[in-house]
Amino acid sequence: MKKQKKILIAFLFFGLLVTSIFGQEKSNSLLWKIEGDSIQTSYIFGTIHMLPQEDFLLKDKVKNAFNKAEVVYLELDMDNPSFMQDMMKYSMLEKGDELKAHMDSTEYVFLNQYMNKNVGVGLKQLNKFKPLSLTSMIMTTLMGKQLASYELTFINMVKEAKKDLKGLETIESQIAIFDKIPYDEQIDDIIKMLKSPEETKKLYANMITLYKAEDIAKLFESMDDYFDNDKEMMKSLLFDRNENWVKQISEISKKQKVFYAVGAGHLGGKKGVVQLLKSIGYKVTPVLD
Predict the structure, then answer these.
(1) Average pLDDT value for residue range 132-144
(2) Is the model's pLDDT at 172 over the cut of 90?
(3) Are 228 and 1 in contact, with CB atoms under 8 Å apart?
(4) Domain range summary for the chain, segments of one domain joined by +
(5) What is the mean pLDDT of the chain?
């Protein structure tokens, strides 16, 4: 499997960011109820950070869980007044570094032409930004439709309901994960993705299908394939963060009823958030309707 799949998965399910079309098994759900003697009853919902508006649907069960909560936790507190300032700060390369230094002249010309044509901004204007910023811009062009975001929807719901919004992580910690990947490798992955757009769109369509089926098990099972069996990347992007979140959930939910919303790829598997919560004694059950 080609490396560029990692970019697509990370972008959609791990950070920076529906009715089923199949007959579902009874355990298929993106929404799970968390109960225990030491905590307030809470809920965790799996998002996909960006998808076509036509595929976006917020089911009543999710709205009901949201309404029962006293506070909402996303991966990031995207409503924080310093959010955009921090995003800009940690998206920039270190002083003295340049984006063009991480690619050869052929790659520069190719990417510059693509960005000018499809984004309206050339690499000269983006020369101080990390490759992850390019990935975010490019992914929106490949999706090619009016896009929707669960995170932005929840932010608007929080404001309307006058609830508190908080984050399980910081922008700095999320971007630091991608900084572990050499920038020249990230550029290579972006170019491979752009040179095989149909494969990227096919992968994206498959993920949307699994997401709409609320099949967190198959979403997780596909991760090894998508990540080209890169165990270190899986550990950094998925397993380490899952363990950290479960520790936080155990503490946060002691005091209040919480609605958590994180990338759906974090829910399934033996090291997923659902199983980790069960392993420390909580009752975690799928909300089916």
Answers:
(1) 85
(2) yes
(3) yes
(4) 4-32+54-59+89-142+159-229
(5) 88
